[in-house]
Amino acid sequence: MKIAVVAANGRVAKKVIAEAVSRGLEVVAFGRHDENDTQAKVYHKKDILDLTKEDLAGFDVVVDGFGARTAEQQPMHVKTSQYLCDLLSGTDTRLLVVGGAGSLYVNQEHTAVLSDSPDFPAEFLPVARAQGEELAKLRERNDVKWTFISPAADFQADGERTGKYLLAGEQFTLNSRNESIISYADYAIAMVDEIESGKHIQQRISVVRA
User: Domain named NAD(P)-binding: which ranges (predicted)?
Assistant: First the structure.
């Protein structure tokens, strides 16, 4: 398989690249940094919004690792993923998006989401709402083979790579220890498993440590 990872210098993206490379997949990274600080053998310095259809032609999967750091940048979640959708529209290339936990449903009726909870951390509300809107816009795209993968609520950059995870869907899910936690490394395993299987096209899935 041939995979493109955009916003490749991000911490989650680098874990996904490392996992994919370890499985022998061909990875091409696109990032904003001058240097290639990923494990991809091929790296192109290119912003997402400068990518062209030709840049992404021939890939089986494109991974969108974009993540905004400030409140002012949050609208870029929708802008960048929709731009990638436009480039991939009508093709067989799948788009996998690194999502957030805030948009996971917390009731069976799917009318309330985690970010609506009174104890949801205020500092994470801007990104939760931005990625919730990103998911809503993806749901409108029937012309793209997208998959949005939400991590657990406690998404740990330096967490342990256990090699195991629970695959869930739209519902906020706890493991047997009543935890909603996953490391970047285990999230990357789930992402690459989905890259290889392609089982959840035009769906949002979620993952939590087993």
Answer: 8-193
Residue-wise pLDDT for 157-170, tens only, equals: 999 999 999 999 99
CATH fold of 2-209: Rossmann fold (3.40.50)
Question: What is the C-alpha to C-alpha distance for residues 201 and 203, in angstroms, rounded to an integer?
Answer: 5
Tens-place pLDDT, residues 105-132 = 999 999 999 999 999 999 999 999 999 9
Indicate whether this model's pTM tops 0.85: yes
Query: What's the Rg (C-alpha) of the chain?
Result: 16
Spell out the domain ranges in the chain: 2-209
Task: Specify whether the CB–CB gap between 93 and 62 falls below 8 A.
Answer: yes
Amino acid found at 130: A
